Amino acid sequence: MRHDHLITSKQLSREDIETVLDRAAEIDADPSAVADRHANTLLGLLFFEPSTRTKMSFETAMKRLGGDVVDMGSVESSSVKKGETLADTVRVIEGYADALVLRHPKQGAATMASEYVDVPLLNAGDGAGHHPTQTLLDLYTIRENAGLDDLTVGIMGDLKYGRTVHSLAHALTNFDVRQHFVSPESLQLPREVVYDLHQADDGAGIREHDSLEEVLPSLDVLYVTRIQRERFPDEQEYQKVAGEYQIGPEDLEAASDDLTIMHPLPRVDEIAPAIDETDHAAYFDQAHNGVPVRMALLDLFLSDDGAGGALGGDGDE
Amino acid sequence: MSDDHEHHDGNDDHELRVSKIRDGTVIDHVRGGQALNVLAILGIDGSEGEELSVGMNVPSDRLGRKDIVKVEGRELSQDEVDVLSLIAPDATINIVRDYEVIEKHRVEPPEIVEGVLSCPNTGCITTGDEPVTSRFEVLEDGVRCSYCGTIAREELASLIET
């Protein structure tokens, strides 16, 4: 299967994922070996929403491959402010850059934008939709800590609007993973995501819960996301559930000694700072992994034989 | 011939209250109350002088109550029939020439419908000002936006683009 763009994790097979993670591991082990691999290459950064980690890690990744970036800058200082459509913006920046990274508040923005450009377009988050490059660094982190098969993963927090959750859940169906989704009823996984997960593996490995308590002891990995206060119709409703979806040192007594705790960051109060210094905490390593994983992705998409050869296609490599 | 081409299914429906047509299309066995949505899908609002007959909530042995739409002087294209199937899955299409039904078939759902429905997800890129045509994959029990992935199963008629 050839991939000209990376829009969702649904397009990635197990083989594709392993190709990216293996390449990331090689780069992680010896970044200097690829220091000039993409000299004179320009990556276009189009971030229509604020971003720290994703944007900076893409920028770092491109520069560590010997290339550079052109950055649209903030929406306020761009032609978007003048009413330019996304379709026009990507067609303009395509003329400047060898690949594009897009973050946009609207779901489906990356799909639409990819229909207008020939250079590779990587989705760096489209509203509440998908965030596949985050998923690849999540999988890299999970593989380093717990492996990717015969695994029980809990995903907790805002599952409704959490694009990192949607992408990760899809990707995990490629592996022997039991998935437990923990959230208040109002922030459950969107029904279309549940539909896809059931399509992917007959739903055998999918369970939804409203409390972490009953599943925590069985988990190898707990992936925590922020319960977004602004999503609730009133503060009281938020307060009713917020404390239920936090994890502190006292909760770890019921957890496996090998439990890996992850979070796409930024966090607010979902994970107590006291957990940071324990062996359970993987979220800062997870953020660090964004650079080698995005270096691997850029390398695969920018290579002469294209991403098709690199990601399970018919290329020579 | 009292109500000829509407009784093709074995006289299972009661006498109809709308006149027969000479040339055009009779869309029969539309679920009760959906006739105006059928017209909306076909882009017919009478403003172009189209000659229409519409029967709504008439008794039907098969459906209990059904609607019938007759469009004089117009034969539906396959694309139009495909899209009709989304809101009228039981419909039968009768092409009439010189008062005779010369072709009759059931609707079949298409794989994709484009430019017909608007996405119910206000966070979808197709609901903004972008130059993008809506596109939905047709599922067994609904439709799915090709851009944001939202699945709509009910009230599809309310999603018809105006």
TrEMBL record, chain A:
Chain positions recorded as carbamoyl phosphate binding sites: R53, T54, R103, H131, Q134, L265, P266
Boundaries of every Aspartate/ornithine carbamoyltransferase Asp/Orn-binding domain copy: 150-300
EC category: transferase
Single GO molecular function: amino acid binding
Record domain Aspartate/ornithine carbamoyltransferase carbamoyl-P binding: where: 5-144
Pathway(s) per entry: Pyrimidine metabolism; UMP biosynthesis via de novo pathway; (S)-dihydroorotate from bicarbonate: step 2/3
Subunit details: Heterooligomer of catalytic and regulatory chains.
Protein name: Aspartate carbamoyltransferase
Taxonomic lineage of the native organism: Archaea, Methanobacteriati, Methanobacteriota, Stenosarchaea group, Halobacteria
TrEMBL record, chain B:
MF annotations from Gene Ontology: metal ion binding
Source species taxonomy: Archaea, Methanobacteriati, Methanobacteriota, Stenosarchaea group, Halobacteria
Homology family: Belongs to the PyrI family.
Task performed by this protein: Involved in allosteric regulation of aspartate carbamoyltransferase.
Keyword list, A-Z: Metal-binding, Pyrimidine biosynthesis, Zinc
Organism, as annotated: Haloterrigena alkaliphila
Gene3D superfamilies the record matches: Aspartate carbamoyltransferase regulatory subunit, C-terminal domain (2.30.30.20), Aspartate carbamoyltransferase regulatory subunit, N-terminal domain (3.30.70.140)
Keyword Zinc part of the UniProt annotation: yes
NCBIfam families named in the record: ATCase_reg (TIGR00240)
PANTHER family linked: ASPARTATE CARBAMOYLTRANSFERASE REGULATORY CHAIN
One GO term describing the cellular component: aspartate carbamoyltransferase complex
Oligomer status and interactors: Contains catalytic and regulatory chains.
Note describing how the cofactor binds: Binds 1 zinc ion per subunit.
Cofactor(s) demanded: Zn(2+)
UniProt protein name: Aspartate carbamoyltransferase regulatory chain
SUPFAM superfamilies (alphabetical): Aspartate carbamoyltransferase, Regulatory-chain, C-terminal domain (SSF57825), Aspartate carbamoyltransferase, Regulatory-chain, N-terminal domain (SSF54893)
Positions that bind Zn(2+): C119, C124, C145, C148
InterPro entries per record: Asp_carbamoyltransf_reg_N, Asp_carbamoylTrfase_reg, Asp_carbamoyltrfase_reg_C, Asp_carbatrfase_reg_C_sf, Asp_carbatrfase_reg_N_sf
Domain Aspartate carbamoyltransferase regulatory subunit N-terminal span(s) in chain numbering: 16-108
Domain of life: Archaea
